[in-house]
Structures are given as C-alpha cells and as structure tokens.
Amino acid sequence: MPVRYDWAWDEESVDTEKEEEEEEEEEEEEEEEEEEEEEEEKKKKKKKKKKKKKKKKKKKKKKKKKKKKKKKEKKEKKKKKKKEKKEKKKKKKKKKKCRR
C-alpha cells in the first residue's frame, strides 16, 4: 500500500513553525530592548548619583574654604586689635614721658 502524503498539512505546519520562530525572535528582540532600557536607566541613576556626590563634595569644599577664610579674617582682626592696643599703650607711655 502506498503511503499518502498530505502536502497541505505539511505547508500548514511549516507556516506555523515560521510564525512561531518569528514570534520567538520578536520576543527576544523585546527582551533585549527591555534589558538595554534597564541598563540605560542604571547608567543614568549611576551618573545622577555620581553628579550628586560630586555636587556634595564641591559644596563641602566650598564650606571648608569659607570656614578657613572666616578663621583667617578673625585672626587678622585679632592681630589688628592687638597692634592697635599696643600702639595706644605706646602713645600713652610717650605722653607720660612728655609730662615729666
């Protein structure tokens, strides 16, 4: 008995196989896109975090510089006051000498 081969059924199976392959490829592409998006988001977050850290560091540095400047000004003011006091004392002493 000859074996009958149904070509129509074979074509359908080939078509469904192709469709399944295409669907799988599409799914893989979507997954890849999602992964890329996630990586981009991570990079953005990392960059943002780095920027924030840099900003914080800059702010800290600025604060430190300001503090140093204030300290220096205070020191100079103190020095100036001391000098003025010394000069006043000298003048007073000189005046006393002149009276004699």
Output the keywords.
1 helix, single chain, 100 residues
Structure characterization notes:
The structure is a single chain. The mean pLDDT is 84. 0% of the residues are buried. The protein has a domain at 75-100. It is mostly helical. Helices cover 93% and strands 0% of the residues. The N and C termini lie far apart (153 Å). The longest helix has 93 residues, at 7-99. The radius of gyration is 43 Å and the shape is rod-shaped.
Radius of gyration: 43 Å
DSSP summary, beta strand count: 0
Report the end-to-end length measured between terminal Cα atoms.
153 Å
Kindly name the structural category: mainly alpha
Largest sheet features: none
SSE layout:
Layout: H1 7-99
